């Protein structure tokens, strides 16, 4: 007798503890082995690109906060920078430094959320709480500077909304001094732990060649060994005046991506230290016309957000409202390569892989 | 007299199990620089009772496509063995329910029944997540049951008996953990796997399988699984105490207190591990079981036998 | 593999390291804030509930707002509604409504106000039983924004 | 409105060619594909804003060349999107943002298509184009020829219309809420 066998179709999400939001994955299983998978997105689609066409340039800034909602400063920066390029605006040096300090702090905050949730997916619940403890401090700093913890809406065309308050400096110094010890704590729980190694080494591997072909960016591509960081490759703001390293991995597995992000947190600490030391006095906002009306034309500008290459492509028709805004969201592109990483893995690897590419659905669906 | 004892033991066990959940929440909270339940009663001391009441009055949902009778029965199949085992556990020299010659064998065989409840629960829910959880559980329990059995052969050889009381008496001088460190480590790992705790909590694995075999359960039926898990934890701890740590034996304090302290230490270890470690993958768990633990068990038995033959 | 590595593996050193870390935290002071018993005080710049400022003069309280409508125009979610009476210099604010359920608290309305008549307070407990309750009118914005002590 | 539209038309149509002619990328492309290039434009003085408009029949060939040529090495497709210009005859403009990870330079390619006219897919050149093209199809209704799996990506399968088209109302067709 020949038994008929069939693939098991498992619907993971959109409500599932470890799909990081409302991602839905269709898994075609052979036992617990994944034969094929299909990510289904759009559950958080808010039509931000359409909305942009109905708002003025300034009004769109707070809406960018809601793209990658755990890293609002980089979103602000990428958008503001593109409009500045379109209008050829000068940004004072002090404002540039403030932008760098805040985006780098936000990179740490974003990586902490990633580390916490990723470790929790793999079962280490305690790391999550430790990460959020440190993230709270950063969010406090954000609240102090901008008035909100996550939807900061702080960068303006030609500068920033306000100068850093005086109480900011001692607090950020204190944080920077204590943070390396905290990273050591996370590493004591994970980096050499045999279970962590077993769960992450050689899991969800993607080669450098595939990574480029599938458009991976940020720590995901660096994990595969490509030393490409927009902060170094095409420096924006004042990154060319700062000294930092770009960590890379070799294998392109979950563990390498983990190590890259851990090192990036340390490098960000370094950057903030330097930026604080170098920051000049002066204006925080350049000369900006009262009504933002960029000349007709188009511009694309991108930054290294915590997730990868975050770019804005803006077409202006010379009016107060953008004609077209296209957001090149890193998570959207990174998620595309997920089926490639999952093939042949087990269900347990699915969550390790999702965690390791660090997606935020707000940015994927826009 | 026996009935009174049964009621006392059952009542105490239920209470301890309930408060074990409280202890777990508190300890893990403090490991994570949180404070855990605080609102119900002083420092949340009435929390387990509130939880119990909540589960009791909660709507009991049976999925439409579920195999109804199996679905209802499986939590009971899971719970009953977990409690029946306590019959042969000597809490102190005089306080036990039954003194049978094959005590250890009885514990192992009865507690093995619990797996049927889990497998049936996974099957009858008619949900893919539950089914996968059930499968994982079946594979895991069967393989770990075997080396759980093998790992305790060492101390049994030293004691020369399967009777729980006699085993404890045999440790009057030196605890077996001194003679049998390897067996102790193996037993501990098997015990954690047997009770589905982190790092071996694959049948539940809430981040992978939502809740594994009990995904579809709610209300009291869910509570039964919960109670069974914690009761099993206590059984595993009690067995470890009996086999390796000299049972109720200890200076100054009465036997039952010593027994409680030792079991408590084990329970803390369980919780502590949960607060620290990530989770193994299914295939890795099986590999560790069959390829590392099982040969080590055999090695331990052989070594024990040789040394016993040569020197005693 | 070196012998020391092997020994590390056998004696579960990596796991012991993790256990040590968590145990160390067991004796640290928890960081929980027991809301609503303990409360977080927001920073100076916090963007909470809006408030319309008034100024005192001989004829009693007077609105600082001149009803220019800049706030309503700058609002990204279009939640501000202004009703005015009179023309030119006589223009007076009659009603000022903010739909708090749709407000995104970006602070643009405060930023553009030429009279500094609008500010954002540190009041953040904005909940209501129905949507209508969350439409703050002029009275609400001038008086009720003051932080209340939480009552059980 | 008409006046504004006309202004848009003329502004968008052609940039200043002369400034870009010295660019090595332009030179190379002019050499290999003399007839494929329609126009060259881009915001000055930013070298990464070079924009080349090519004929749609040639797009895959041009892309493949840009990727394979060792001096250009545009191995990374940053972004692909469509822009709707309803007043033009070829109303959709598809914009490719290319990047070279080894050479660190950027290039913007453009093609125009009529409504409903299929455009050859560039998945064969860069795999990442897959979702980008699905998105352009979903939001603008541009069909891509040779795409293995062209279905909606952000919106549900049964959605009516393509929201990023200019005639699509902000609040949607079936909304009872008044637009702002």
Description of the molecule:
The complex is a heterotetramer of chains A (366), B (312), C (152) and D (180). With 366 residues, chain A is an alpha+beta fold. Chain A contains 15 helices and eight strands. In chain A, the strands form three sheets. Chain A has a three-stranded antiparallel beta sheet. In chain A, strands 6-7-8 form a three-stranded antiparallel beta sheet. In chain A, strands 4-5 form a two-stranded antiparallel sheet. In chain A, helix 5 runs antiparallel to helix 6 and helix 11 runs parallel beside helix 14. The longest helix of chain A has 29 residues. The N and C termini of chain A lie far apart (52 Å). With 312 residues, chain B is mainly alpha-helical. Chain B contains 13 helices and no strands. The longest helix of chain B is centred in the first third of the chain and has 30 residues. The radius of gyration of chain B is 20 Å and the shape is globular. Chain C is α+β, with helices and mostly antiparallel strands and 152 residues long. Chain C contains five helices and seven strands. In chain C, the strands form three sheets. In chain C, strands 4-5-7 form a three-stranded antiparallel beta sheet. Chain C has a two-stranded antiparallel ribbon with strand order 1-6. In chain C, strands 2-3 form a two-stranded antiparallel ribbon. The radius of gyration of chain C is 26 Å and the shape is elongated. In chain D, 24% of the residues lie in helices and 21% in strands. Chain D contains four helices and seven strands. The chains are: A alpha+beta (366), B mainly alpha (312), C alpha+beta (152), D alpha/beta (180). At the A-D interface, helix 1, helix 8, strand 6, strand 7 and strand 8 of A face helix 1, strand 3 and helix 4 of D.
Short description:
Chain B is mainly α and 312 residues long. Chain B is 69% helix and 0% strand.
Topology:
The complex is a heterotetramer of chains A (366), B (312), C (152) and D (180).
Chain B: H1 2-31, H2 47-57, H3 68-84, H4 103-124, H5 128-151, H6 153-159, H7 164-170, H8 176-179, H9 181-194, H10 206-209, H11 219-244, H12 255-274, H13 282-311
Helix pairs in contact in B: 1-2, 1-11, 1-12, 2-11, 3-4, 3-11, 4-5, 4-11, 5-9, 5-13, 6-7, 6-13, 9-11, 9-13, 11-12
Chain C: H1 3-10, H2 13-26, E1 50-52, E2 54-57, E3 60-63, H3 70-74, E4 80-85, E5 92-99, H4 108-112, E6 118-120, E7 135-136, H5 138-143
Antiparallel strand pairs in C: 1-6, 2-3, 4-5, 5-7
Chain D: H1 2-13, H2 24-32, E1 37-41, E2 51-54, H3 59-68, E3 76-84, E4 92-99, E5 106-113, E6 119-120, H4 129-140, E7 144-145
Parallel strand pairs in D: 2-5, 6-7
Antiparallel strand pairs in D: 1-2, 3-4, 4-5
């Amino acid at each position: 007798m020949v038994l008929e066998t069939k693939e098991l179709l498992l619907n993971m999400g959109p409500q599932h503890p470890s799909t990081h939001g409302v991602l839905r994955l269709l898994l075609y299983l052979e036992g617990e082995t994944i034969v094929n998978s299909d990510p289904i997105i759009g559950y958080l689609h808010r039509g931000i690109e359409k909305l942009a066409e109905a708002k003025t340039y300034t009004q769109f800034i707070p809406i960018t906060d809601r793209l990658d909602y755990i890293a609002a400063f980089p979103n602000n920066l990428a958008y503001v920078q593109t409009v500045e390029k379109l209008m050829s605006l000068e940004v004072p040096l002090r404002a540039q430094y403030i932008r760098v300090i805040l985006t780098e702090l936000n990179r740490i905050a974003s990586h902490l959320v990633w580390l916490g949730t990723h470790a929790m997916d793999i079962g280490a619940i305690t790391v999550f709480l430790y990460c959020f403890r440190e993230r709270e401090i950063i969010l406090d700093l954000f609240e102090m500077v901008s008035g909100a913890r996550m939807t900061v809406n702080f960068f303006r065309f030609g500068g920033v909304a306000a100068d850093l308050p005086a109480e900011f400096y001692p607090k950020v110094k204190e944080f920077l001094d204590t943070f390396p010890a905290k990273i050591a704590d996370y590493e004591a729980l994970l980096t050499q732990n045999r279970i962590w190694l077993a769960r992450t080494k050689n899991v969800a591997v993607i080669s450098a060649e595939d990574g480029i072909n599938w458009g991976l960016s940020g720590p995901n591509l660096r994990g595969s060994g490509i030393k490409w960081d927009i902060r170094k490759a095409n420096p924006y703001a004042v990154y060319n005046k700062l000294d930092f390293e770009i960590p890379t991995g070799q294998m392109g597995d979950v563990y390498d991506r983990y190590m890259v992000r851990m090192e990036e947190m340390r490098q960000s600490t370094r950057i903030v230290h330097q930026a604080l030391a170098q920051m000049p006095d002066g204006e925080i906002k350049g000369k900006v016309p009262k009504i933002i009306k960029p000349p007709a034309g188009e511009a694309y500008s991108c930054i290294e957000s915590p997730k990868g290459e975050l770019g804005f492509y803006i077409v202006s028709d010379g009016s107060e409202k953008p004609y077209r805004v296209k957001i090149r969201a890193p998570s959207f592109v990174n998620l595309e390569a997920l089926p490639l990483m999952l093939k042949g893995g087990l269900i347990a690897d699915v969550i390790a892989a999702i965690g390791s590419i660090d997606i935020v659905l707000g940015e994927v669906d826009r | 007299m026996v009935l009174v004892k049964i009621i006392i033991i059952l009542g105490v066990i239920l209470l301890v199990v309930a408060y074990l959940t409280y202890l777990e929440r508190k300890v893990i909270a403090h490991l994570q620089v949180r404070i855990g339940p605080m609102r119900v009663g002083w420092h949340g001391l009435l929390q387990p009772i509130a939880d119990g009441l909540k589960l009791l009055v909660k709507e009991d949902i049976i999925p439409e496509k579920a195999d109804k009778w199996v679905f209802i029965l499986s939590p009971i199949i899971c719970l009953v063995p977990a409690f029946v085992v306590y019959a042969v556990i000597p809490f102190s020299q005089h306080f036990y329910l039954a003194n049978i010659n094959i005590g250890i064998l009885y514990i192992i065989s009865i507690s093995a029944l619990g797996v049927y409840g889990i497998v049936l629960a996974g099957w009858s829910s008619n949900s893919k997540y539950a089914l996968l959880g059930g499968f994982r559980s079946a594979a895991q329990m069967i393989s770990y049951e075997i080396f759980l059995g093998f790992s305790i052969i060492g101390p049994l050889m030293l004691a020369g008996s399967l009777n729980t009381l006699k085993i404890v008496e045999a440790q009057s001088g030196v605890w077996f953990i001194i003679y049998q460190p390897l067996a102790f480590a193996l037993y501990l790992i098997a015990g954690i796997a047997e009770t589905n705790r982190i790092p071996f909590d694959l049948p539940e694995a809430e981040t992978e399988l939502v809740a594994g075999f009990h995904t579809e359960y709610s209300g009291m039926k869910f509570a039964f699984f919960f109670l069974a898990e914690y009761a099993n934890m206590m059984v595993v701890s009690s067995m470890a105490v009996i086999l390796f740590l000299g049972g109720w034996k200890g200076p100054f304090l009465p036997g039952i207190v010593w027994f409680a302290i030792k079991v408590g230490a084990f329970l803390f270890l369980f919780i502590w591990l949960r607060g620290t470690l990530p989770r193994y993958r299914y295939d890795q768990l099986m590999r560790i079981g069959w390829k590392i633990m099982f040969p080590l068990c055999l090695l331990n038995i052989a070594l024990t036998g040789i040394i016993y033959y040569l020197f005693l | 593999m070196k012998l020391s590595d092997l020994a590390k593996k056998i004696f579960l050193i990596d796991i012991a390291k993790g256990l040590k870390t968590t145990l160390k935290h067991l004796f640290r002071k928890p960081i929980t804030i027991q809301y609503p018993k303990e409360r977080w005080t927001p920073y100076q710049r916090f963007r909470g509930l809006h408030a319309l400022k008034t100024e005192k003069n001989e004829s009693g309280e007077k609105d600082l707002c001149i009803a220019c409508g800049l706030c309503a125009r700058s609002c990204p979610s279009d939640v501000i509604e202004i009703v005015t009476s009179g023309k030119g210099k006589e223009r007076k604010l009659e009603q000022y409504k903010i739909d708090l359920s749709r407000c995104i608290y970006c602070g643009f309305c405060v930023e553009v106000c030429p009279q500094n008549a609008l500010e954002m307070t540190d009041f953040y407990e904005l909940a209501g039983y129905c949507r209508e309750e969350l439409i703050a009118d002029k009275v609400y914005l001038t008086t009720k924004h003051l932080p209340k002590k939480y009552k059980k | 409105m008409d006046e504004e539209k006309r202004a848009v038309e003329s502004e968008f149509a052609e940039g200043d060619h002369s400034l870009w002619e010295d660019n090595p990328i332009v030179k190379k492309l002019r050499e290999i594909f003399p007839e494929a290039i329609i126009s060259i434009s881009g915001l000055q003085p930013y070298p990464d804003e070079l924009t080349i408009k090519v004929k749609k029949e040639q797009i895959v060939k041009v892309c493949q060349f840009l990727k394979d040529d060792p001096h250009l090495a545009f191995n990374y497709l940053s972004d692909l999107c469509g822009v709707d210009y309803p007043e033009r005859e070829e109303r959709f403009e598809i914009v490719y943002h290319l990047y070279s990870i080894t050479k660190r330079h950027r290039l913007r390619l453009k093609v125009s298509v009529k409504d409903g006219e299929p455009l050859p897919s560039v998945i064969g050149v860069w795999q990442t184009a897959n979702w980008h093209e699905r998105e352009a199809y979903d939001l603008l209704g541009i069909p891509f020829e040779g795409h293995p799996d062209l279905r909606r990506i952000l919106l549900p399968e049964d959605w009516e219309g393509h929201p990023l088209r200019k005639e699509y109302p902000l609040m949607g067709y079936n909304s009872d809420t008044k637009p702002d």
